[in-house]
Specification:
With about 325 residues, the chain is of the alpha/beta class. Helices cover about 25% and strands about 25% of the residues. β4 (about 50) and β5 form a beta hairpin.
């Protein structure tokens, strides 16, 4: 018997390779967040890496079994797809290495094709589906009154995670208890692990609230976010560094997240790929960011153009010389 690999979306569950059954279910019983088993098809020319629950990456081979979860991805620079697009063949893709499963409907020509898998069945126990939401422990929803450093971007790959690591490191060096979180995006544990490596005492993301990605209907996200915030509040950190994956204008509920945490945001960093993108986000939201970073601040010329177009300050956070200025801005924002 082939022992399945558990992708990192299973990290909130008690699943092991041996403690569940695989049952093929009729299409009307499929839903977002269902744990399912896929058999790896031809890997030639395709991405074949899977992220395990602790973040380690492995390469799978043909006929290996992988446990992931049905969900949706809508990446501007890579791939778009969802489980509802899976046709009668039962073939689907790993939309992320974390085990976000669905059928690709659109893909950038500049990336390798996502892994192809064949539906084997749902993860079941006692004739019932095992799901992400059903794997969550009971948790009292508590008031969230912790200051947040919010990092948003004009798109994916705009420098948010790198900037977040710098901020986490600076704040932890100030002696603060920092929790890192990702409020929106598509499942991938790697980014949050990098926050922990930078000094965060704990890390959480939407997977910890039972979502394979935050590209769900608004009602489901509004239900999940208080659970995530309560997990964080239970740790009683001094400050939270929160990344909103993708951008608030993409279908990941970034605007809802921003609305629900608005009163706690003390400092807002915008990561952009170029200075003109800064202007677009600035016009889309009522509140301007406190600082711009990412590709739009890679050079002195870019920083000057950001200032000319938007009136906003920008820093190249890759340069150690910028850290003192950033630290001063964070101290002022947090009233330290």
């Amino acid at each position: 018997m082939i022992r399945p690999f558990l992708a990192s979306v299973t990290r909130i569950s008690d699943l092991t390779p041996d403690n569940f059954s695989t049952t093929a279910l009729a299409r009307e019983h499929w839903d977002t967040g269902d744990y399912v088993v896929g058999k790896v098809l031809d890997t030639r020319g395709h991405l074949k890496a899977i992220e395990l629950p602790r973040g380690r990456m492995i390469e799978v081979m043909e006929d290996d079994l992988v446990v992931g979860a049905f969900g949706r991805r809508a990446a501007t620079l890579e791939a778009v797809g969802d489980w509802q697009s899976i046709d009668d063949t039962g073939e689907f893709n790993a939309l992320t290495a974390a085990g976000l499963f669905g059928k690709v409907t659109s893909m950038s020509p500049f990336i390798s094709s996502p892994m192809h898998l064949q539906y084997q069945g749902h993860v079941t126990r006692n004739d019932a589906k095992v799901t992400m939401r059903g794997s969550l422990p009971q948790l009292d929803i508590i008031d969230f009154d912790i200051p947040i450093i919010l990092i948003v971007g004009t798109s994916m790959s705009s420098g948010k995670t790198m900037s977040g690591r710098v901020i986490v490191h600076l704040l932890s060096q100030m002696g603060l208890n920092v929790v890192g979180t990702n409020l929106t995006g598509a499942a991938r544990y790697r980014d949050m692990l990098s926050f922990r490596d930078a000094g965060a005492s704990a890390i959480y993301d939407f997977v910890d609230a039972g979502l394979p990605s935050s590209a769900v209907d608004e009602a489901a996200y509004r239900q999940a976010l208080p659970y995530l915030l309560s997990l964080i509040a239970r740790d009683k950190p001094d400050v939270v560094v929160a990344e909103a994956g993708a951008s608030p204008l993409e279908p990941y509920n970034g605007a809802i997240a921003k609305e629900m945490i608005r009163d706690n945001v003390k400092f807002k960093l915008l990561c952009a790929q170029d200075p003109y993108a800064v202007v677009g986000v600035q016009h889309a939201f009522q509140r301007s960011p406190d600082l711009v970073a990412g590709g739009a601040a890679n050079t002195d010329a870019a920083i000057a153009l950001v200032k000319k177009l938007s009136g906003l300050p920008a820093l190249n956070l890759m340069e150690p010389a910028s850290r003192d200025q950033l630290g001063a801005m964070l101290r002022k924002a947090l009233d330290l």
